[in-house]
Structures are given as structure tokens and as C-alpha cells.
Design brief:
With about 375 residues, the chain is an alpha/beta fold. Helices cover about 30% and strands about 25% of the residues. Helix 6 links the parallel strand 6 and strand 7. Helix 2 packs antiparallel against helix 8 and helix 3 packs parallel to helix 4. The chain binds S-adenosyl-L-homocysteine and N,N-dimethyl-L-histidine. The site of S-adenosyl-L-homocysteine has 19 residues, from helix 2.
């Protein structure tokens, strides 16, 4: 039984999880022009959780070899920009601006998944914490880890919570989120893990039950084969007593879905085009984001939303870091994301195929989003 969170009794040194490469987080908030507005409901620290001073070191681990992500981006750009049709993997949306734009998306009227999943967590977090009885909450693709507070609070109330391990490929956003949680939960050991969860899951090996959360419907951003590989890899690293909490957006009226990915204010369009800015910054490319338009469409056969960037003119883009010259024809479309939508039976089947047994299934009151709790079968 652990004693978290009690604002008054945080130890001077937090307990430390094992890891390969611990670092101290740099200070400072994220900044992204165009992505600033009022803080979200959950990102504003509630009064009952006083923020801790920012000068206390946060534990950060980098699981991938130095340069791995930079090389992976080069490889993905080389392959994707040379393919027909062209394609870029969505994990590269999330530089500082991309992460801020995603947070802005979560506050849009049209973008229901975050609110729907939060409403499920509000209702079910106690049940989840009681079933999992986990010491460690690992969150894959944690982002701002806003909804995560509902799980942390429930696990603390259950008396089991000792550590939180957010895992994300977006280092700046991850550290900012981890620092906030660290400040709000005295006594909680927080270890931020910078990793690509398709390469290295970043699960802590410490004894004690672990609850692995993968929220937001991010699993839908993986293609079916990638999903199966990811689930099998996760299953192979879980132990008896661990649990897996998975958020999945559900199939619904295509008009609702398309609006969620093509909002009136153009935030999703900016998010989509941000991948071009990522390539410009990282690879010296000369994409002109204004020379592309945002496309969101529902693929009824695959049951996924597809985001694309459509070239507004014949143009040639150079990508010096990979020595590539890329012609785009007017009207040519490049896929930047799929966002698969699920049905409960399909989720259970994919989990079962990977060796999980789904023990609970919740949806919000309008049946828009599903949350499943599974254990190793
Ligand atoms: N879980 C949060 C954030 C979702 S946004 C929520 O529910 O709101 C998706 C997050 O997953 C981003 O922070 C992004 O950086 C991260 N992500 C995407 N692909 C990833 C990968 N392959 N490995 C690690 N993190 C990834
Ligand atoms: C992170 N992921 C679940 C989001 C989604 O809905 O597929 C990413 C996103 N793309 C456009 N809007 C949001």
C-alpha cells in the first residue's frame, strides 16, 4: 500500500525507477504559435494539488540508441516520399508544435473522442483501479497525460499507486507533462520514457503489478499489421497480474467522424500540415505548407478516417538530408494518418489474437468511444 498523493508529505527525493539513461529535464513550457488558447479543463492544475517547484530533477529515460529517431525519420521520409502513393507515418506529427496543436484539437467542439473517453474514465476509474491493483501506471503515447489524472487519483484512492511512467516519442511534450504530474502528486515516482512504443515499450521491470494504459484511440493510428505486432509485443512483455487499458474510438455516422477530422477552425488542417514543417526542420526540406490542402475522408471499407495532404499545384520539393527530390503533381494526395474506428467485437478479437483476455468493456453514454480492460490470457 502506498501513500499517494498527499500534497504535504512528498519526500525530498522521489524513489527512482530503474533505467538505461537517466537525465534531468530542461525547464520551461512549450510554445507553438497558433496553438495557444485557454488551458484545458484537466491541464489547469486543480487547487487541491499545489504545483511543486520546477527546480527538482525529473527522471527521464531514453530507451532508444542515440540518433535512432532521427534515422527513423530519415528512413520513413525516404521510403514514404518515394512510394506511390506517397505516405508519411503519423508519429512524426508530434514535434512541440504538433503536440500543442493536438491538445488544441482535443478542445474542439467537433473532436468528441477526448471528452467521450474522459467521461468513461470519470465513471470507471475506480473500477479499473480496483481490478488492476497496480503499483505502476505506464502510459503509452501519454501526450499531455490529462485524462491520466483520473486513473492516478483512482489508483491512489485504491492505495496501490507508487509510480507513473509516461512513454512518448515527443520528448518536449512528454517532459512537460511528466513535470506537471510530478508536481501535482507528491510521493509519486515519475519516470518519463522517451521512446517509440513500436520499437521499445519502456515498461519498467520493477516488481509489482503494472497497469499499461494506451488511451485516446492512438492504437487506431497504427495500420492493422502494426496493431497486431504492437499488441503481440506488449503481451509478450506483460506478467501475470498486469493489466492493459485500451481506448478505442468507435464506428459511427461518417459525418460526425469527418467533422472531427476537418474542423471549422482549421486546427486539424494545421496539425496535418505540421508534418511538413517537421520535415523542413529535421531534414532541411523546402515544403511550402500553403501549397498543400488538408483532406479528411472516411474509408467505409477499412473503417478508418484517412488524413491526406493534397498538392495544390505541380511542384518539386527537395529534401537535402536524404538527397531526395520529390515531384508532386497538382491534386496528388499524400497519406499522413489513418485513424481506425472500432467495434467492440473487433477490439476483443484483436486483443484475443495477441493473447489478451478482455475482462471489461465500457462506452460513454452516447456509444462514441470504447475503453477495454484486459489481462494476459
Ligand atoms: N494519450 C493522449 C495523447 C494522444 S496523442 C490522449 O489520449 O490525449 C498521441 C500521442 O502518442 C502523442 O503524444 C504522440 O507523440 C504519441 N505517439 C505517437 N506515435 C508514437 C510512437 N510510435 N511511440 C511513442 N509515442 C507515440
Ligand atoms: C492521437 N490520435 C488518436 C488522434 C486521432 O484522432 O486519430 C490524432 C488526430 N489526428 C487528427 N486529429 C487527431
Amino acid at each position: 500500500m502506498r501513500d499517494v498523493p498527499r500534497p504535504s508529505d512528498r519526500p525530498a527525493e522521489t524513489p527512482q525507477a530503474p533505467g538505461r539513461t537517466p537525465h534531468t529535464a530542461p525547464p520551461g513550457p512549450l510554445r507553438c504559435p497558433g496553438a495557444e488558447d485557454q488551458p484545458s479543463e484537466a491541464s489547469a492544475p486543480p487547487a487541491r494539488r499545489p504545483a511543486r517547484k520546477a527546480d527538482v530533477a525529473l527522471r527521464v529515460e531514453r530507451c532508444l540508441p542515440d540518433g535512432f529517431l532521427a534515422e527513423a525519420l530519415r528512413a520513413d521520409a525516404r521510403a514514404g516520399l518515394s512510394a506511390t502513393p506517397k505516405v508519411l507515418p503519423p508519429k512524426w506529427f508530434y514535434d512541440e508544435c504538433g503536440s500543442e496543436l493536438f491538445e488544441k484539437i482535443t478542445r474542439l467542439d467537433e473532436y468528441y473522442p477526448t471528452r467521450a473517453e474522459r467521461s468513461i474514465l470519470r465513471a470507471a476509474a475506480g473500477q479499473i483501479a480496483a481490478a488492476a491493483r497496480a503499483e505502476t501506471l505506464v502510459e503509452l503515447g501519454a501526450g499531455a497525460a490529462d485524462k491520466t489524472r483520473l486513473l492516478l487519483d483512482a489508483m491512489a484512492a485504491e492505495g496501490t499507486l507508487a509510480s507513473f511512467v509516461p512513454v512518448d516519442v515527443s520528448e518536449a511534450a512528454l517532459i512537460e507533462a511528466a513535470r506537471r504530474v510530478d508536481g501535482e502528486y507528491p510521493g509519486l515516482a515519475v519516470t518519463a520514457v522517451v521512446s517509440d512504443f513500436e520499437e521499445h515499450l519502456g515498461l519498467p521491470s520493477a516488481s509489482g503489478a503494472r497497469l499499461v494504459a494506451f488511451l485516446g484511440g492512438t492504437i487506431g493510428n497504427l495500420l492493422p499489421g502494426q496493431r497486431a505486432a504492437f499488441l503481440a509485443s506488449l503481451r509478450s512483455r506483460l506478467r501475470p497480474g498486469d493489466s492493459f487499458l485500451l481506448g478505442t474510438d468507435l464506428v459511427k455516422d461518417p459525418a460526425v467522424l469527418v467533422a472531427a477530422y476537418d474542423d471549422a477552425a482549421g486546427v486539424t488542417a494545421a496539425f496535418n500540415k505540421n508534418i511538413l514543417s517537421v520535415l523542413n526542420a529535421a531534414l532541411g526540406a523546402d515544403f511550402d505548407p500553403d501549397a498543400f490542402e488538408h483532406v479528411a475522408l472516411w474509408d467505409a471499407r477499412q473503417e478508418w478516417i484517412e488524413m491526406r495532404l493534397r498538392s495544390l499545384q505541380d511542384q518539386i520539393v527537395t529534401v537535402p538530408a536524404i538527397d531526395l527530390v520529390v515531384p508532386f503533381a497538382e491534386g496528388e494526395e499524400m497519406r499522413t494518418e489513418v485513424s481506425a474506428k472500432f467495434r467492440s467485437a473487433g477490439v476483443a478479437a484483436e486483443l484475443a489474437a495477441a493473447g489478451f483476455s478482455m475482462t471489461e468493456w465500457w462506452t460513454d453514454d452516447r456509444g462514441r468511444f470504447g475503453l477495454s480492460l484486459s489481462v494476459p490470457a
